[in-house]
Amino acid sequence: MENEHRIRLTKSGTVPSVCEFLARESETILQAALRQGVKWPHRCRAGACLSCAARAFEGEWAYQVEPMLSQHEQSQGWLLACIAQARSDLHILL
Ligand code: FES
Fold first, then answer.
1. In terms of pTM, does the model score above 0.85?
2. What is the pLDDT of residues 19-69, one digit of tens each?
C-alpha cells in the first residue's frame, strides 16, 4: 500500500479557511488537491509559471525535477505544488 500524507491547507485572503486532504507519494500535491476537490491556483502544471506556489510551515517534500525557486525561497518553505510530492504530513499556507 502506497504511503499517504495528510496535507493541512490554510488559505489566506478575505475569508481565511482551513481544509485537509491526503496526498500519495507518487502524485504531486496539486494533483492530490484537485483530485479531492480542493481549489488551488495553477496554470502550467510543469513548474514554470509559479502560480501554484505556496509556503509550507511543517513537513517534508521532494521534487522529481529541480524547481524554479532560489535556495533562499526554498529555505523559507516556498514550494511549487504542481511538481512537489509530499514525504510527510504537511502544513501549507496558500
Ligand atoms: S502550475 Fe505553473 S508552476 Fe505550478
1. yes
2. 999 999 999 999 999 999 999 999 999 999 999 999 999 999 999 999 999
Domain boundaries along the sequence of the chain? 4-93
Q: Ligand 1: distance of its center to the CA of 1 in Å?
A: 29
| Ligand 1 binding pocket mutation candidate from 44, 66, 94 (most atoms within 8 A of CB) | 44
Residue 32 CB neighbours (<10 A): 22
Evaluate whether 61 touches 86 at the Cβ level (below 8 Å).
yes
Binding-site residues, ligand 1, Cβ < 6 A: 42-45, 47-52, 80, 82
Q: Which letter, b or e, does each residue of 44-77 get, where b requires 16 or more Cβ atoms within 10 Å of its Cβ?
A: ebebeeeebbbebeebebeeeeebebeeebeeeb
Question: Which CATH class name applies to 4-93?
Answer: alpha beta
